[in-house]
Design brief:
The protein has helices spanning 2-16, 18-32, 76-84, 91-97, 113-121, 134-137, 145-158, 161-172; strands at residues 36-42, 48-54, 101-103, 130-132. Helix 1 packs across helix 4. The protein has 8 helices and 4 strands. The chain is mainly alpha-helical. It has a two-stranded antiparallel ribbon. The chain has a two-stranded parallel ribbon with strand order 3-4. The longest helix has 15 residues, at 2-16.
Amino acid sequence: MIRLLDFIVAACGLLLLSPVLLLLTLAGYRDTGSPLFRQTRVGRHQRPFVLLKFRTMKVGTKSVATHLADGSALTAYGRFLRRTKLDELPQLWNVLKGEMSLVGPRPCLFNQEELIRERAARQVFSVRPGITGLAQVNGIDMSTPQLLAETDRQMIDGLGLSGYFSYIFATLLGRGRGDRIKN
């Protein structure tokens, strides 16, 4: 049921938001010359997949977890995209393809070994990673691996249709602050 909802919402979202996606892409070309950011992340069953986002940092910025990234690499346009969470919109394509869900644990990088261990111990990788979830709407980011993995497990154990929609609406209403960036 959740997969069907993911597919329908992602397909409708991509279709309805295509003018916004086009405008954000054009603005991204103007900002960095390379509006889309592709990064290999850890997916369901710890399989790799390529996550899509709008680029928020300068081209060539080192590929590390957001909380370890150099804040000076963030562009002014990128700051706007992160604050409004518009940088996440291209992930609707990942959802449509079945690599992600709208709701689930945020996908980490393969070099985040502590988080991978914590999540593996709690079987968090048994589900598709998501665009949003319990940790995101409560401001828990990847800088606290154990807490994040525990929160992910708590969300997975209690996730039903009402939770699915409540996390989506909480995110759309601006709850949560996203991953912190080092200054």
